Description:
Blueprint: H1 19-28, H2 48-58, H3 76-96, H4 103-110, H5 120-126, H6 130-144, H7 149-152, H8 160-173, H9 183-193, H10 209-223, H11 228-255, H12 260-291, H13 296-322
Helix pairs in contact: 1-2, 2-3, 2-10, 5-11, 6-9, 6-10, 8-12, 9-12, 10-13, 11-12, 11-13
Amino acid sequence: MTTSSSLTEQSPLPCERGPLSSSVLAVLRGERDRADLGGLPDADPYGDDLQLALHCCYEPHYRGFAGVPNDCEWDPALLTARRELEQVFEHALRSDTVPGSDVAAEVDALLVEPVDARGVSHHLRRDGTLWQLREYVVHRSMYHLKEADPQAWVIPRLAGRAKAALVAVEYDEYGAGDADRMHSVLFARMMVELGLSDAYGAYLDSVPGATLAEVNFMSMCGLHRRLRGALIGQFAMVELTSSPGSDRLVRAMRRLGCGPDAIRFYDEHVEADAVHEQMIRHGVLAPLLAAEPQLASDVVFGIRASLLLGERLSDLLLDSWQDNTTSLRQAVDVG
């Protein structure tokens, strides 16, 4: 059975976090016919205000916001604002990552975990508390409640073997035809088991810009054909590194006494992503680069930008937890 969360549920409009998000939200509410992004040159490209504004521009392409008309998805004012926000975000990512084109070396590096690796899953497995685990799940809910949706946009932009293999991976993400085994549904069940709300977008006001930036990067790459190589790189990074991290999270949950519905989501990823690793490497990347070798630098950019954003979020969580404070903008209630 699926959770009580509706499959067509929309999230409420969030609270503003600054002039950029305030202006975009005003357009969504029908209060303005254009967004005033005058403060954009001085905005932090990874900060709360810009990332929330960008999230609000992307969400109409997913389920949309409650009370906002569906036709706002293609509102020229919203698209214009999105383009300006994206330019700042993408420029920052390209400035903060080293360019490269050796995809094979990049993939090989992903498959090697340093002995002294530091990360959220390592901390949770060894020393994490239940409240920290719940916080981590809240952060991850911004993507996992729509898992695989951003990557689905790249399907019509591929061809041949690369397209077929990526569709096969996506088919697994969507439960191989069984709605109750969709990864987004398994994640929602985990949230309920942990005493959290499984409502779509329930924690949008709680998560910081660092959390939104990871998902916004996927959306940006998915919605631009020119960034199809970057989206494949992002997807490769996730699928090639997910299995060991998922195993650590399963161990953490067992140590903390979590129930089977909590453990099932990451337990599923231990095996599934180990298989997906091979499918992405040999089924997607190899034929894609054979057909379009000019995409190699974009694939590397997608990998490195994803790693950068992941490290920024990881540092935020670990630094907050070291100080015994919440990594969220506001603490969440636990049922």
